Amino acid sequence: MPAPRDRVLLVRDGSGVEAIRARFGGHAYDLHRHDEWLVGVTERGLQDFFCRGARRVSQPGRVILIEPQEAHDGRAGDPGGFAYSMLYLPGAWMRAGLAGGPDGDPGFRSTLADDPGLGAAIRAARAVLAEPEGRLARDAALDAVLAGLRPHLGRPLRPRPQAGDATVARRARERLQDDPARDIGADALARCAGAADRFQLARAFRAAYGTSPHAFLVQTRLVQARRRLAAGERPAAVAAACGFADQSHLGRWFRRAYGLTPAAYRACCTGVPDTGPRPA
Question: Distances from the Cα of 19 to the Cαs of 79, 85, 120, 130, 235, in angstroms?
């Protein structure tokens, strides 16, 4: 079979994190360096690359970990080509996420790792950054990657309950309920709740309510959307009023939660068929 055509899809998050999904049929790139931390997962084929003085071969599911300024190249390890997802994590973002750990710069223990959980987190974060998700969803996805990286950096997380955790969780919950349509990020929400940082907020919120701030926000928006649809409002207007990026975004979450489209739910409640554009 002929090798697949080369393709690179890149998106950039407001935090400075970049995400790519790429495929190459043969030679991918020459020896080069990055200022960022590179964390990726091979999705298909054999990914052959030079790093740390030796050639490496990554198979599907394996995680690739490259530190800033480590020279590396890339090519296919067999005629079928290869595909992978990769995140480029700025140094400032990593330092902020790892604050409070041991002194000195961290380093990856190895260039290749068998870590299905981290690989899934990388793929999920890349997908979230490529979609019209809100700030909380993006922050949560990237924080999951950071949590998965900690063992590879020798920076285990040792969470300790902090005074005021219950208050922090309650304030964040009230803030999300008061204005669910607002696209607020985890850092801003932590400040509103009086948390030391978004990591304290995430731990306190999950301890108090058994879920993440983002998941709670989505559920709050869906409850509001369901109420508006039952009253006869059109899906596109409901999506805008409830904080979803567009009607398709509302449709994806609504089907996952309730098993039918917003338009179908509106028709069931009102007896009015949707005569506009086809629902998402």
Answer: 26, 7, 14, 8, 31
